[in-house]
Amino acid sequence: MSLPQSLRTSVIPEELEMIASQELVEVIPLIAMEKTVFISGEFGPLRPPMKSKIPLWMALNLKLKKKCHIVAPEWLNIDYLQDRLTRETTLPEFSDLPFRFAEISRLLLDAASDDIPNSDKLRLVLKDLREARQAKSREGLQQLDHSELSLPNLCSMEINEIRPFFIRSMGIFTQLQRTTQPQE
């Protein structure tokens, strides 16, 4: 199957981050705010010092204005990510991570590193984890088969990175298959 040219380009990382910013995160508000209605839903009320769940984009906006502290998701800690890194380097399959872990962790570490314990070490572990997963992706693509591709636990950023290569490869496989089939 051939995709139209408009669908062959990949989404840029910033667009993926914008999509990921719809995820809900916990915040500790520093200001009181009534329930606010947006197209995506109602959020609030915010009452300090009680935790509230709001979209990441809203949390980042409030953090920028120094009106909240962002609580790191439970998976964004050294022990959890170090365990996932160990699995990536020792097991053949991809370890289970949140689908948008790369985008969310980048946004949080860029905007709220003061709210996240061990943020510098987290950056290093995330970088190592990303490199291990990229190496595993490259390995998997070398064994690409026209009939099936199974890469469970791939995250959105990784899918986006291999999409252009995969689309070109499938096109070449299809052309080769057409030229090698006996003419009827």
TrEMBL record:
<feature type="domain" description="DNA replication complex GINS protein PSF2 N-terminal">
    <location>
        <begin position="13"/>
        <end position="71"/>
    </location>
</feature>
<dbReference type="InterPro" id="IPR007257">
    <property type="entry name" value="GINS_Psf2"/>
</dbReference>
<feature type="domain" description="GINS subunit">
    <location>
        <begin position="75"/>
        <end position="175"/>
    </location>
</feature>
<dbReference type="Pfam" id="PF25005">
    <property type="entry name" value="PSF2_N"/>
</dbReference>
<keyword id="KW-0539">Nucleus</keyword>
<dbReference type="GO" id="GO:0000727">
    <property type="term" value="P:double-strand break repair via break-induced replication"/>
</dbReference>
<comment type="subunit">
    <text>Component of the GINS complex.</text>
</comment>
<dbReference type="InterPro" id="IPR036224">
    <property type="entry name" value="GINS_bundle-like_dom_sf"/>
</dbReference>
<protein>
    <recommendedName>
        <fullName>DNA replication complex GINS protein PSF2</fullName>
    </recommendedName>
</protein>
<dbReference type="GO" id="GO:0000811">
    <property type="term" value="C:GINS complex"/>
</dbReference>
<dbReference type="Pfam" id="PF05916">
    <property type="entry name" value="Sld5"/>
</dbReference>
<keyword id="KW-0159">Chromosome partition</keyword>
<dbReference type="GO" id="GO:0007059">
    <property type="term" value="P:chromosome segregation"/>
</dbReference>
<comment type="similarity">
    <text>Belongs to the GINS2/PSF2 family.</text>
</comment>
<dbReference type="InterPro" id="IPR021151">
    <property type="entry name" value="GINS_A"/>
</dbReference>
<dbReference type="InterPro" id="IPR056784">
    <property type="entry name" value="PSF2_N"/>
</dbReference>
<dbReference type="GO" id="GO:0006260">
    <property type="term" value="P:DNA replication"/>
</dbReference>
<keyword id="KW-0235">DNA replication</keyword>
